[in-house]
């Protein structure tokens, strides 16, 4: 085979894969520059139907693709050259696997004859991501003899990532030189239908529904209205995780379950828990679920095992909407309105108490920043929240509101790639705010590369307490000597984040109080473009603020008769 044939074969092979992926739903691809991946990069740009986003850094680029997939609900493609570039995708692959985000991971590779002989920029990329992918394919080098399999390969990889059990798929593509060529005619279309698993068969029937039940709404709910209607029909409260879409203005929605479960009350009388999707971030809620003797029904369309406390008694493989509407049809309706009223009365009291405490603050408080950012994002916008304290502050202290989509990388709960995830969400065209801590921000400053030229509306709120604030809430903070704690956990970085943002050409506002943060988010997203808002806080003061909020909330709940039947 001549060198010219290899260039044509590479180009035709990649054009065929892209054509088939687009036919099945691909709209966005993130390309990380490299030589060996040239045939696929050129094919993606040449197709014209794919929005191509170029990123210098593979780790940031893969999280940007993850954000695009989260925002659009469609699989996004991310492409790298061979070698350690492909390894940089691994954290995003793990997050996509655990949180079931469709991600088509395409890595270029040397042909098999150059593997294992010390060829430059060559590592073992076969099954590189292990069990973290739904499917791993090491494709053959493009050849006339395997031309008839190209469309089937594209369809197989697409529906492995975007099908009934979404997640990452690794497509490893070896290319022989020359890497540049003009594509010939593509193989004929393959109109065979892909197989889709029907997620409608339950593993178990939970039996009759009691009067005193509780719904926990986690991420992954496909039909919020159906879940709200189920709660209203049953007269059950909903502990609504911000990512669930259910933390809206509705009489059944409980926003401050974390506070309520910190003191003995109505949770002792819960007879059944129906949980949709993932568990909330709250450790308090998780521990109560694990200790409860109530029947625990977990609803998930993929029947994923999300049961760290091993308390699930029934697993039902259905979408939230399908399950909720099927139950609504067979129940009689509310028989004990006092049950829901008890929860809502206590929750409203907690909300009022939190507002009073935070209104008295004269400087930045991290819970107040979270509340104000949640309130400030315009209707129809998206809030991306980093792990560690930001997601907890949003869950614990934010109020109910309509019209907000909340996104967070809670599959692996990591703090890497958060900036890039938010950039990916914003690339979908949605006005986006990001709430992130300083350490997570520093983990992914490469997410800022070229950001001002991407044409997105993104406001990044950085809570800067000069280190790892979450560790101040752990026993290490009181057990270790202060100097040792700071060395190992406090880890002050001393970086001037404003100067760092300015180095990327981004405007910065340094907020003086919680209200200013919210006003800055409103102004940023109304104006458009990218802005950084810095909210400087103190780690020691932050612990005290959290304690005072929890105590005020508990006292307010108890004053409503929360602890009595």
From TrEMBL:
<keyword id="KW-0460">Magnesium</keyword>
<keyword id="KW-0479">Metal-binding</keyword>
<dbReference type="Pfam" id="PF02776">
    <property type="entry name" value="TPP_enzyme_N"/>
</dbReference>
<dbReference type="GO" id="GO:0030976">
    <property type="term" value="F:thiamine pyrophosphate binding"/>
</dbReference>
<dbReference type="Pfam" id="PF02775">
    <property type="entry name" value="TPP_enzyme_C"/>
</dbReference>
<dbReference type="InterPro" id="IPR011766">
    <property type="entry name" value="TPP_enzyme_TPP-bd"/>
</dbReference>
<protein>
    <submittedName>
        <fullName>Unannotated protein</fullName>
    </submittedName>
</protein>
<feature type="domain" description="Thiamine pyrophosphate enzyme N-terminal TPP-binding">
    <location>
        <begin position="17"/>
        <end position="127"/>
    </location>
</feature>
<keyword id="KW-0808">Transferase</keyword>
<feature type="domain" description="Menaquinone biosynthesis protein MenD middle">
    <location>
        <begin position="211"/>
        <end position="384"/>
    </location>
</feature>
<dbReference type="GO" id="GO:0070204">
    <property type="term" value="F:2-succinyl-5-enolpyruvyl-6-hydroxy-3-cyclohexene-1-carboxylic-acid synthase activity"/>
</dbReference>
<dbReference type="InterPro" id="IPR032264">
    <property type="entry name" value="MenD_middle"/>
</dbReference>
<keyword id="KW-0786">Thiamine pyrophosphate</keyword>
<dbReference type="GO" id="GO:0009234">
    <property type="term" value="P:menaquinone biosynthetic process"/>
</dbReference>
<feature type="domain" description="Thiamine pyrophosphate enzyme TPP-binding">
    <location>
        <begin position="418"/>
        <end position="530"/>
    </location>
</feature>
<dbReference type="InterPro" id="IPR012001">
    <property type="entry name" value="Thiamin_PyroP_enz_TPP-bd_dom"/>
</dbReference>
<dbReference type="InterPro" id="IPR004433">
    <property type="entry name" value="MenaQ_synth_MenD"/>
</dbReference>
<dbReference type="InterPro" id="IPR029035">
    <property type="entry name" value="DHS-like_NAD/FAD-binding_dom"/>
</dbReference>
<keyword id="KW-0464">Manganese</keyword>
<dbReference type="Pfam" id="PF16582">
    <property type="entry name" value="TPP_enzyme_M_2"/>
</dbReference>
<dbReference type="InterPro" id="IPR029061">
    <property type="entry name" value="THDP-binding"/>
</dbReference>
<dbReference type="GO" id="GO:0046872">
    <property type="term" value="F:metal ion binding"/>
</dbReference>
């Amino acid at each position: 085979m001549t060198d010219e044939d290899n260039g044509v074969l590479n180009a035709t092979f990649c054009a065929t894969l892209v054509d088939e992926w687009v036919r099945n739903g691909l709209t966005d691809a993130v390309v990380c520059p490299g030589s060996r991946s040239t045939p696929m990069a050129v094919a993606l740009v040449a197709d014209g139907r794919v929005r191509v986003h170029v990123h210098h850094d593979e780790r940031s680029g893969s999280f940007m693709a993850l954000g695009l997939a989260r925002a659009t609900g469609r699989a996004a493609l991310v492409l790298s050259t061979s070698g350690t570039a492909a390894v940089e995708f691994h954290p995003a692959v793990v997050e996509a696997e655990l949180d079931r985000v469709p991600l088509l991971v395409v890595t270029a590779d040397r042909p098999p004859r150059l593997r294992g002989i010390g060829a430059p920029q060559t590592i073992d990329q076969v099954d590189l991501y292990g069990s973290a992918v739904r499917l791993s394919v090491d494709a053959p080098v493009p050849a006339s003899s395997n031309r008839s399999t190209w469309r089937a390969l594209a369809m197989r990889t697409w529906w492995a990532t975007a099908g009934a059990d979404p997640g990452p798929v690794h497509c490893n593509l070896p290319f022989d030189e020359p890497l540049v060529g003009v594509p010939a005619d593509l193989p004929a279309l393959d109109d065979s239908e892909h197989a889709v698993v029907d997620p409608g068969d339950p593993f178990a029937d939970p039996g009759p529904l009691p009067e005193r039940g509780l719904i926990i709404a986690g991420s992954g709910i496909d039909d919020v209205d159906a879940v709200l209607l189920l709660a209203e029909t049953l007269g059950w409260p909903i502990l609504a995780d911000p990512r669930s879409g259910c933390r809206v203005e509705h009489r059944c929605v409980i926003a401050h379950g974390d506070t309520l479960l910190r003191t003995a009350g109505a949770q002792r009388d819960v007879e059944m828990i129906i949980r949709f999707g993932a568990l909330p971030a709250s450790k308090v809620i998780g521990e109560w679920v694990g200790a409860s003797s109530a029947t625990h029904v977990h609803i998930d369309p993929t029947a994923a095992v999300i049961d760290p406390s091993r308390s699930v008694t029934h697993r039902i493989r259905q979408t939230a909407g399908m399950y909720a509407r099927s139950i609504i049809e067979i129940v009689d309706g509310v028989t004990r309105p006092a049950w829901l009223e008890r929860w809502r009365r206590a929750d409203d009291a907690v909300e009022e108490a939190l507002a009073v405490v935070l209104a008295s603050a004269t400087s930045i408080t991290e819970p107040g920043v979270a509340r104000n950012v949640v309130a400030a994002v315009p209707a129809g916008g998206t809030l991306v929240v980093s792990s560690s304290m930001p997601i907890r502050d949003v869950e614990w202290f934010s109020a109910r509101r309509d019209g907000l989509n909340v996104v967070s990388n809670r599959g692996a709960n990591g703090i890497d790639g958060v900036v890039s995830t938010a950039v990916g969400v914003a690339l979908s065209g949605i006005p986006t705010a990001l709430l992130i801590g300083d350490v997570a921000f520093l983990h992914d400053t490469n997410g800022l590369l070229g950001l001002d030229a991407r044409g997105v509306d993104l406001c990044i709120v950085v809570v800067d307490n000069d280190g790892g604030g979450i560790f101040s809430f752990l026993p290490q903070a009181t057990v270790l000597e202060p100097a040792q704690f700071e060395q190992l956990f406090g880890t002050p970085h001393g970086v001037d984040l404003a100067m760092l943002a300015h180095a990327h050409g981004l405007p910065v506002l340094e907020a003086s109080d919680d209200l200013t943060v919210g006003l800055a988010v409103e102004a940023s997203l109304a104006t458009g473009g990218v802005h950084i808002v810095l909210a400087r806080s103190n780690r020691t003061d932050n612990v005290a603020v959290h304690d005072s909020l929890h105590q005020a909330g508990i006292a307010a709940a108890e004053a409503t008769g929360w602890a009595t039947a």
